[in-house]
Amino acid sequence: MPVSATPSAEPTPKLDWGGPLAPGAFGKIKAEGNVRTLVDQGWMTRDTKREAVCEGKHWRWAEQLGDGIDVIHDQQGNIGSFGMSKPVLETARGITIGDTLMVLKDVYGTGSQKTNDYGQTTWVVQEGDRWIGFLLSGDSRDSKIEFIEVSVGRQPGLLHDGC
C-alpha cells in the first residue's frame, strides 16, 4: 500500500466518527436523511456564524474545531452530501486531503477521472448507490486532493465554493 503524501489527521477529538471516510459516509454517519435527525442525535448544530454571511439555514458538526467539514442540504434540510476540505478523516485505504492523483489512482484503480461543471479534475469511486468523490488541483500525477465529497443515491458534484 502506498504511503500517504501527507500525515493522516485524527478525527476531531470530541467527535467519534465510528469509522473511516467511505463512499456515502463520514465514519458511521451516512450522507442521507434529514439534518434534523443528526441535530437530534447531537451530531450537528446551527451554524449561526455562517448564516450571518450566507443566505438560508446552515449547520455544522457539533463541537467542530474550525472549519473544513460541511453538510450539503436543501432548504428542507434533506442531506445531499457531506464535504471535507481539511484532513479531518481518511479512507480505510489511507487517502485524505493533500494526497496526490498518483496515490489516488494507485489505491482506487477502479475509480473514474472526470471534470466537474467548473472544468476541474475529479476522481469518483462508486460502491452500489454510495459515492466518494475527490476534487483535485489539476490533472497531473502530482495534483493534490483539495476536497472530498460523499453522497448516497447520486454522484457528488464536487463543486466547492463560498456559501
Describe the model.
The protein has 163 residues and is mainly β. The chain has one domain (21-152): Sandwich (protein yfey like fold), CATH 2.60.460. It has 3 helices and 11 strands; from the N terminus they run βββαβαβββαββββ. It has helices spanning 35-40, 48-51, 101-107, and strands at 21-22, 25-26, 29-30, 44-46, 59-61, 69-73, 79-84, 112-115, 121-127, 130-136, 145-152. It has a 6-stranded antiparallel β-sheet, with no helix packed on it. The protein has a 3-stranded antiparallel β-sheet with strand order 1-2-3, with no helix packed on it. A hairpin with a 2-residue loop joins β2 and β3. The radius of gyration is 15 Å and the shape is globular. The model is unreliable at 1-13 (pLDDT under 50).
Q: Could you write a compact summary of the structure shown?
A:
The protein is mainly β and 163 residues long. Helices cover 10% and strands 30% of the residues. It has helices at residues 35-40, 48-51, 101-107, and strands spanning 21-22, 25-26, 29-30, 44-46, 59-61, 69-73, 79-84, 112-115, 121-127, 130-136, 145-152.
